[in-house]
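Figure-free illustration: sequence to structure, shown twice.
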Amino acid sequence: MKVFFFGDSICYGQGISVHKGWIPKISSAFEDNKLDVLVANSAVNGRTTRQALETMPFEIQNYKPEILIVQFGMNDCNYWLSDKGLPRVSKKSFKANLEEIITRGFNFGCKKIFLNTNHPTLKNQKLPFNNISFSYQESNEHYNEIIRELASSLTKNVILNDLEKVFIETCNQKKYNLSDLLLEDKIHLSSKGHEIYFNTIFFKIIDEVKKINQNEI
């Protein structure tokens, strides 16, 4: 059984020790549960869905994983000064790129594909462009909504992990402040944030692994 992660710095685990990342934790948990699962993490810091499609043939299609976890958006939704008020990837292109990633995943053997929304950030200042009246965090929320809409419109074999909702509920229940779950850059996950990702995602994945092993898909 192969479980592959395809994403950006949120999958990579930027800013923390490797063993504290949510994906290494998932890999270790498979071993603890005595499941023969090959876990691979094809994550690159700063990567957009457009860039991911260029590398997907080598990183994903070549290995034909049964389960694929997809996490993009935090770079797609960003605005660089060099783009003069345009996002790195437009909303229309972001949706189309995710659709193609999903199509290619299933075409090359995936049984289940998980789509993750992105957690909230603390980047709440207005972006520095005259034609824009919103913050990076608001842009992140807009792209999360695209992920939700796409997941709801597709086959039952696409499963949504709504990390934005989980983080908001966690903070509303006063288990943590959002600042506890992020690094000082206000975007990337702290070790506590990685723990929430792990607890949200692992048990869903292990259920699907067991179903596939039992030929229930």
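We now fold a second protein in the same way, so the two outputs can be compared directly.
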Amino acid sequence: MSRGYDSDERDGDRNQEPAPAGKPDPRPTAYGRTAGTSSKAARDRAEPGRERNREVAPKSRVNERLSFRAIEKWYGLSEREHGTLREIGRFRTIDAEALFKYRYAGKPAAFRQEIARLQQQGLLQRRSISVGKNRDTLVIVALTKEAAKLVRQDSQLPENQTVYAGFVKPAEVPHDAAIYQMYQSEAAQIEAKGGKIRRVVLDYGLKKEVYSKLACERDAGALEYARRKQEIADEQRLPIVDGKIALPDLRIEYETPEGDLDHVDLELATEHYHRGHMALKTRAGFKMYGFVSTSRGRRAQWEGRELTATVLSL
């Protein structure tokens, strides 16, 4: 479930690394001769504005791509490994079993080798946690900070796609890991109709957008605050339910077969949802998916399915 709404919690800021700053070139600068003198003052007079222009020159897209290619060459990543890092970065935490199912189906050896190699290179973190009443084992993966920097330079991701690094709180892991499976179910339906996935937005990102703007209106009067809240909700294409901006667990933005941009908001309901919470999310118009943890041997398995109107009315 999404982590509440209309609160000041800033989950969207957790473990998000800023875009990497360019590293200074360790090589000494080589100056040519200038009218028979090598003094700095003479060089500055001969080339006015040289130092200033060097400092303010914007970083070009070409340089960014060269930087990315250098990193790519250093790590020697395959296209599939790039795709694996992109996938994990978009969702913060993924169940390793689900990652195998959707990216390495029928290729267990490749899965083991590539995940181990990414981990050895310091690009991937892997943990085993105990979940459920029977303390079943769930293996999860997340990007390291270095991997997130690499993925953010990947031209195959839209510029406004958030990339995450690190793990969430242990109590939130089972729910967050299951969001990836919910995404796969919905993405399959979108693509079957000819749509193309453009971006995914977790509730962390939506919270950051909403609450950073609402925080600026704290001192406004009640009427002005309510007006601004409605404006912000409209900007983010989110509903207001019972006076609060409702936030989904996941938003999928996609292009329709006609070339229009659209989105669908999804909520992942667990066995811990109480009736009132589910009713509120239903009123918000979110598409609901059910999620139940079951024990099967030593591993925790996650079963998810879309909740129809009949199920929701039970």
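Summary for the second example: Residues 11-16+64-312 form one domain.
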